[in-house]
Amino acid sequence: LGLAVGGHGSLLPDSLARQVKVKWQKPDLGEIHRKLRPQGPTRPLSNPGTEPDPDLPGGGLHLCPACARYFIDSANLKTHFGSKEHKKRLKQLSIEPYSQEEAERAAGMGSYVSPKRLPVPTEVSTDVPEMD
């Protein structure tokens, strides 16, 4: 008998496997809900007047706010809008996020109230600003 594949080293907080997992971790649905809410941060998601960010794919100009992903060009972004992954994410975002009040009701401190349906922005501008 020996260690299983991966061993116990992958459980350490500074292991390479954990570092890669954290690096590629997608934002939680609650974080995306906060960014999509009108009373959320006033930071614009994609402003055509801003200059491109060289560290992001496509200069950060082609963002799908529901999936929190950047794309290389508008053609790839439009293809993404028709994908199964994007449609699943829109369905997940259409339900009100889990809250402390809902947890208390589930624990028996109130009666069940079904989660509300929320409007999800499906239209995203795919226009690219002209570069000088």
TrEMBL record:
One of its GO terms (molecular function) is ribonucleoprotein complex binding. This is Zinc finger protein 593. Involved in pre-60S ribosomal particles maturation by promoting the nuclear export of the 60S ribosome. Negatively modulates the DNA binding activity of Oct-2 and therefore its transcriptional regulatory activity. Residues 64-86 form the C2H2-type domain. PANTHER family: ZINC FINGER PROTEIN 593. Pfam families: zf-C2H2_jaz. InterPro entries: C2H2-ZF_Maturation_Protein, Matrin/U1-like-C_Znf_C2H2, Znf_C2H2_jaz, Znf_C2H2_sf, Znf_C2H2_type. Keywords: Cytoplasm, Metal-binding, Nucleus, Ribosome biogenesis, Zinc, Zinc-finger. It is found in: Cytoplasm; Nucleus. GO terms for biological process: ribosome biogenesis. GO terms for cellular component: cytoplasm; nucleus. Associates with pre-60S ribosomal particles. Belongs to the ZNF593/BUD20 C2H2-type zinc-finger protein family. Signal peptide: none annotated. The keyword Magnesium does not apply. Residues 29-59, 82-132 are annotated as: Disordered.
